[in-house]
Amino acid sequence: MELDDLKEAWKKTNLKKTNTDIMELIQHKSYGPLNALKREFIKQIRLMLVMPIILILTNVQNVDAVLTSIMFWSYVALCLAVIVVSYFNYRTVSKMGMDRMVRSNLEEQISVVETRLKWYQKGVRIALLFFIMLTEVVPYFQHYRMLDKWHSLSPLIRFGTYAGFLVLQYFVSSAVCHRRFGSHLAYLKDLVKEME
To answer: For residue 17, what is the DSSP state?
Structure first.
């Protein structure tokens, strides 16, 4: 009987979180959404710094060919663009972690990060189209054994493969972006809505 009374009393209490509790949840070092977003942006920056080096190391026997390749330098430009976008997103998320942030300011910065991530996804699709175009055009100017073999295939097979890559990239990119960033942003938005 007393346990039932205690349960009823517990249900009737209003345990509304205060702004300081919510800010602590947002800024928590191990499981807070801000730190999770910062970790993901740092991972992305590190990966894009390492990828061109890996490409050079895999072609160490013919480094001159790599350094004169338009495909390599296009990939380096893509990596640099991703690093810049990730850095700006990292800075924005870091600013959100400052004390004394008002709700409207947090909502505005969340909106900025979401918009940048949407543009990032569109940019990746455009970059894939650009690399497909390069794959088709480069053999007319520079000869690579791999691209010569690729161009010896039927155009139907090549363009079917490109279409498959574009469709696959569309769905995989959306899922990965949501897993890495979207879930943390959604949680952050929910916490901001709970603020007074």
So the answer is: P
Q: How far apart (Å, rounded) are the C-alpha atoms in residues 163 and 168?
A: 9
The pTM of this model reads 0.70
Q: How far is the C-alpha of 166 from the C-alpha of 17, rounded, in Å?
A: 45
25 occurs within a structural domain: yes
Which domain, by its residues, includes 64?
18-194
Average pLDDT, the chain: 81
Give which of 146, 154, 87, 145 is closest to 120, Cα–Cα. 87
Q: State the CB neighbour count (10 A cutoff) for residue 108.
A: 12
What is the distance between the alpha carbons of residues 73 and 68, in angstroms, rounded to a whole number? 8
- Cβ atoms 173, 124 nearer than 8 A: yes
pLDDT digits (tens, 9 = 90+) for 112-163: 888 988 998 898 899 999 988 988 888 777 777 677 788 888 889 999 999 9
